[in-house]
Amino acid sequence: MISAQVYDAGGVETVSVESASDLEAARDAHGTTWVRVSAATPEEIDTISRVFSIHTLELEDIRSDVRPKTEEFHDHTFVLVKSASLRRGETTFDEEVQTRPVGMFIGQDWVVTLTVEETAVTAVERVWQSVENREGRILVNGPDFVAYRILDRVVDDYFDLLDEIEDTIEVIEDGVLEGPDPDILDGLNTVRRDLLSFRKVVWPTREAVSVLARGDAAHVRESTEKYYRDVYDHLIEIVDLTETYRELARGSRDIYLNALSQSTNEVMRRLTVVATIFIPLTFVVGIYGMNFSDGAWNMPELSWSYAYPAVMLGMALVTLILLYHFDREGWL
């Protein structure tokens, strides 16, 4: 799918793209040309590459889903970023960070955006609608401003994703305080995996935007650099938040493991109390289980009429004494 818009301060014109000649006419039209490509066929990709002199390796980078980056070419600047969203499952902690590559090629008076899936990327669609609706300053600025607006939308979605992860962390922290639960541990591992995946997106994106913000890109005007610096500042904040949430998840995991260890120690302590109480009782029962009644080594208690209740009373006293001792020691 290929669609194009040509716009300037005077208005917006939607161009029907059915052949390479249509693309060439849109490229050479007066004003800024924005070509939007999604789920293109190999033939359409070849046409885009030929008309705008885009190297096939750049297009391959988008399809191969490599890390975000910015590269400078003779007649355009190539920017690859990734939109990110949190896919929710049926359960509370069934979630996964999903990323979609967005390639932007910024020329002198044209910009090409390319996505590999047919489903529209929200950031690209919102900016496209802004051009159609003639909103803000987008019509009076060049193609580098369109790329900035898309980047800004992508980064705003990063904040939304972190807000969702923060909500999950709060649920986990409440669950950790209530006591050990295998679902909580699964949630902790899920959050840590999500943050690691998101970190692999954010860090290279920050480096890619820094190239645009510091004036190294020839096709980014000086008047637009300040907007990229604003996006760069937001990315620094996102990196800091990501690291903070990773620390929170790591801390929650440590608290969970400590609570689990404490619970295990509590169980072992109670079992130790029970075993300790039964040791002397087993000793007494073992002695009288020998039943020596004849010979030189006669057990006198065997012929005593009160022997049985006396032994039971003695065993009860031993139990009470041990319980009293364990209670004073704080083991009960």
UniProtKB/TrEMBL annotation:
Topological type in the membrane: Multi-pass membrane protein
GO cellular component, one term: plasma membrane
Gene name as annotated: corA
Subcellular localization(s) per the UniProt record: Cell membrane; Membrane
Pfam families, A to Z: CorA
Family (UniProt): Belongs to the CorA metal ion transporter (MIT) (TC 1.A.35) family.
Database matches in NCBIfam families: corA
Lineage top rank: taxon: Archaea
Primary location class: membrane
GO MF term list: cobalt ion binding; cobalt ion transmembrane transporter activity; magnesium ion binding; magnesium ion transmembrane transporter activity
Task performed by this protein: Mediates influx of magnesium ions.
Assigned keywords, A-Z: Cell membrane, Ion transport, Magnesium, Membrane, Transmembrane, Transmembrane helix, Transport
Parts of the chain that traverse the membrane: 271-290, 306-326
Organism the protein comes from: Halogeometricum borinquense
This protein's name: Magnesium transport protein CorA
